[in-house]
Amino acid sequence: MVADGYIVSNRPNPHVRRARDIMRAHPEVKDLFGVYPLTIAYIAAVVGFQLIAAYLLRGAGWVSVLAAAWIIGAVASHALFVLIHDATHDLILPGRAWNKFFGILCNVGQGVPTAMSFRTFHLLHHSHLDEYDYDGDLAFKAEARWVGSSPVRKMLWFVAFPFTQMFRPMRLKRPFFDAWLVVNVLAIAAVDYAIWLMAGPAGLGYIVLSMLFGVGFHPLGARWVQEHYSFNSGQETYSYYGAANLLAFNIGYHNEHHDLVKVPWAHLPRIKALAPEFYDHLYAHRSYGRLFTRFIFDREMTLFSRVTRDRHGSESTSPPMELRNAA
């Protein structure tokens, strides 16, 4: 029987305790904390790649644009989302302003101003993991009921995911509108206009379609299922240890990231190598393609296949002082 509601847990955020245990057992893990300025070079390279590709496609037909966006653009745009993620956690340079700037710069290669809204709801996702009123990573209940167990509707959900993700923050009981959001929108609107002038509708279409495929109907879109959908009873967060991490800046190390949010993408594999006793027993994914098809065709898997919790749990969900990161 397909569930008609989320899996409810009264347990505290599991990452809080594991973070404390890891730092107690392996205090040297704190050496991995801090910024990673080399990320700037990767941002410049991927954004530059996207702009050059857009220019080269300026006279191409829409079939070619669609194919290029799905095959290569989605991978590049997804990589930029990962780098936005590091900027959100202030892991590129010291200071929030610089990290916000580089988050917006990533959007130049995506054509859609998502960095600042993502920053707001993603930090809430960490501080209020799986709390429906505060975690924008959880689907609307009506959304989950509509999708149900239908493979066709799951495919349509992947196609629409970039748009539903834009509306989910409106559900949250925290404001997400600020001056940086306005800067984000105006800056990317200006850049999109410049791309239109230099590369035409085909070039701009490639940029935007790359973003839509990078988080939507594409094997890389399985990441949104990988991270927190339940595949093992009692486990809320899941890592991915497949080859796509090479092109996605280690975003698959999701348990490791939730445990130690002050570790930049480049050092995430070192957490698992340093403390294997905390991770080797956990269920992990190895293939995005296999996960993508399993989620679509397994009628037992729905958008409700996730844990939710009451924010007034039995134990504190505050992370250790070393890991706190204000929005």
Characterization of the model:
The chain is mainly alpha-helical and 327 residues long. The protein has one domain (7-323). The chain has twelve helices and four strands. Helix 2 packs across helix 8 and helix 4 crosses helix 8. 45% of the residues are buried. The model has no long low-confidence stretch (mean pLDDT 92).
Mean pLDDT: 92
Low-confidence stretches: none
Major beta-sheet overview: 2 strands, parallel
Straight-line N-to-C gap: 40 Å
Order of helices and strands: EHHHHHHHHHEHHEHE
- Helical proportion, percent range: 40-55%
Specify the overall morphology: globular
User: What's the alpha carbon Rg, rounded to whole Å?
Assistant: 19 Å
Strand order of the largest sheet: 1-4
Structural class: mainly alpha
Number of beta-strand segments = 4
The tally of helices reads 12
How many distinct folded domains? Answer: 1
β-strand percent reads under 5%
